[in-house]
Structure formats: C-alpha cells, structure tokens
C-alpha cells in the first residue's frame, strides 16, 4: 500500500505532506531525510487513526513520491478493516 507525498523546498528545509492525509506534515533538512520522516509520520498517523476509530481515506493522489506503508502497519490496517468497515476505504 502506498500514499503519495508532495515534497517542497522552503527556507532550506524539505516539507513533506500527503494530500490524502492532510494531518500528516513533516520536514527534513534534505530530500532523503524528508522522505524518511514522511514514512515515519504516515505510519504513526495511520496507526493512531485506526486505534482511535477514525476514518482512513484511501490513497488517491498520484503525484509526488510514492511512500510505502510499513508492512506491519499495512497488516494492522487490513486486520482492523472489518472492525471499521463502514468508515475505512483501501485501494
């Protein structure tokens, strides 16, 4: 499972954000660090959203950089899909 991330450069930092997950925003001092931080932030938010019973949108944005969800997090999402079947959507 992938969510695509927009990376922009601003004031010497690289800002990473996910159009499909607007509550995920992070940065790095360089491009590679921004990608690593984006993956960590995405996983943390996905896990928290599911644990708290919130809706997790399906990945739809196709621009930017695809960021893979950690395998353990993807398993957790799939395992909990039935518990929140009315709210969750997966690609």
The largest sheet is: 4 strands, antiparallel
- Strand order in space, largest sheet: 3-2-1-4
| Broad CATH class | Alpha Beta
> Shape, please?
elongated
User: End-to-end span in angstroms?
Assistant: 8 Å
Could you say which structural class the secondary elements and strand pairing correspond to? alpha+beta
Q: Over the alpha carbons, how many angstroms does the gyration radius reach?
A: 13 Å
Count of the separate structural domains = 1
CATH architecture: 2-Layer Sandwich
Number of strands: 4
Instruction: Give the rounded overall mean pLDDT.
Output: 87
Q: What percent of the residues sit in helical stretches (DSSP H or I)?
A: 25-40%
Spans of 5+ residues with little confidence (pLDDT < 50)?
Answer: 83-91
Count of individual helical segments: 2
* CATH fold-level assignment: Double Stranded RNA Binding Domain
Description:
The chain is of the alpha+beta class and 91 residues long. The protein has one domain (2-80): 2-Layer Sandwich (Double Stranded RNA Binding Domain), CATH 3.30.160. It is 34% helix and 30% strand. The protein contains two helices and four strands. It has a four-stranded antiparallel β-sheet, with helices on one face. Helix 1 (31-51) packs parallel to helix 2 (71-80). The chain starts with a strand and ends in an 11-residue tail after the last helix. Residues 83-91 have low confidence and may be disordered.
Short description:
With 91 residues, the protein is α+β, with helices and mostly antiparallel strands. The chain has two helices and four strands. It has a single domain (2-80), classed as Double Stranded RNA Binding Domain (2-Layer Sandwich), CATH 3.30.160.
């Amino acid at each position: 499972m992938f969510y695509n991330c927009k990376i922009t450069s601003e004031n010497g930092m690289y800002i990473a954000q996910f159009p499909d997950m607007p509550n995920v925003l992070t940065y790095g001092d360089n491009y590679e660090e921004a990608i690593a931080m984006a993956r960590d932030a995405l996983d943390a938010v996905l896990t928290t959203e599911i644990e708290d019973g919130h809706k997790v949108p399906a990945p739809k944005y196709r621009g930017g950089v695809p960021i893979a969800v950690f395998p353990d997090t993807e398993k957790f999402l799939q395992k909990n899909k039935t518990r929140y079947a009315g709210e969750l959507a997966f690609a």
